[in-house]
Amino acid sequence: MKLAIVRQKYTPFGGAERFVERALSALVGQGLDVTIITRQWKGDGQDGRKVRRCNPFYLGRLWRDAGFSRCVQAIVATKEFDLVQSHERIPGCHIYRAGDGVHATWLELRARTQSPLAALFTRLHPWHRYVLRAEAKMFRHPALKAVICNSRMVKDDIVRRFGVAEDKLHVIHNGVDLDYFHPGLRDEHRLQVRAELGIPKDAPVVLFVGSGFERKGLFPLLQAVAGMPGVHLLVVGKDRKLPQAKAMATQLGIAERTHFLGAQPDVRPYYGSADVFALPTLYDPFPNAVLEALACGLPVMTSPTSGAAELINDSCGQVADALDISAQQQALSLLLAKAGSNTGSTQSIAMQCALTDMTQKLQSLYLGLQ
After folding, report:
1. Which of 26, 130, 239, 301 is the most buried (most CB within 10 A)?
2. What's the pTM value of the predicted model, to 2 decimals?
3. In angstroms, how far apart are the furthest CA atoms of the chain?
4. Are residues 122 and 208 in the same domain?
């Protein structure tokens, strides 16, 4: 089978890219002929990977996205590939992986943090209007055979908004490598990382991992931690709003116990050093970081607008609204009080999303669509 996977731009620390890399490694090993169609992909041509460049000239992101879409549609029209799976909103592809969720829903949830005028400006912005049109056209295109939803939350949203037949919607959670992320990281890294950062070995530590601080909920989390004396916060991620986040930490009086670590190629030492993982995101279809944290034995606090919330129960975490500071403080306090005592429960949840299970479900889907 010749399979093309479409991803416009590779970001080394992005969740979609980690999904693609994990899936590709397993699928190629099972005999599928896989080609990546992309504008920019780090490591082009390495390890025998087939990469097809699709990078027409553009000015601005609307022209960029529309041009890439037309380029991909032209490739699909050649029927060179048996199946084309897109991770972008491109009408005419056979499979769409809704890793970014539903754009219309994201705009609605983002409006919770905006003034009415700012929310209106966002919705009327030409790029957002283009994405909304492309999204609707894609879901209603006759060539669409299947949609991979990484959570039930996303599946239900697509049914509600676009009326896509349920037999086209397949919930396949992201997969986590249980050999790479595991509770043993605590023994390997806890004391060393804390010593390097000047954190007392017995201090409670909350970990946040995510790029896109506003969407991932960092600013409310900073406020929550400010009301929890002695709690340290590790922030792993890259974002243009880093100066604002640092300024807020200073204003809240928690600069000394907030550690901004930037993007990290290997996050495992920080999972090993923390007691609790927190991602009170405004909207996230299914964050890989939550799975990784669970696999490492960390209890998780996330929000009801995170697809990962459907995995969370009292034995492995808490769910609190992305903007409710008091609820987040209460949830974190509960998790910190029993940190380290529920490693087995958290890891058992992660085992439901093993990488091997994800790839088996993907391969079954592809074979069923031939």
Report:
1. 301
2. 0.89
3. 62
4. no
Residue type, 198: G
Q: 362 by DSSP, 3-state: which?
A: helix
Neighbours of 121 (CB within 10 A): 12
- Domain with residue 21: its CATH number is 3.40.50.2000
Helix, strand, coil percentages (3-state) for the chain, rounded to 5, are 50, 15, 35
Answer for the pair 143, 73: CB distance below 8 angstroms, yes or no. no
Tally of residues, the chain: 370
HSE-CB for 17 with a 13 A CA cutoff: 12
Radius of gyration of the chain (CA): 21
Distance, in Å, from the CA atom of 186 to the CA atom of 171, rounded to the nearest integer, reads 32
Reduce the DSSP state of residue 170 to 3 states and report it: strand
- For residues 227 and 267, membership in a common domain is answered with yes
pLDDT for 3-51, tens place per residue? Answer: 898 988 865 555 566 666 666 666 666 677 888 899 887 654 445 568 8
Q: What is the pLDDT of residues 132-176, one digit of tens each?
A: 999 999 999 999 999 999 999 999 999 999 999 999 999 999 888
User: What is the phi-psi region of residue 43: left when phi exceeds 0, alpha when psi lies from -120 to 50, beta otherwise?
Assistant: left
Q: 144 by DSSP, 3-state: which?
A: coil
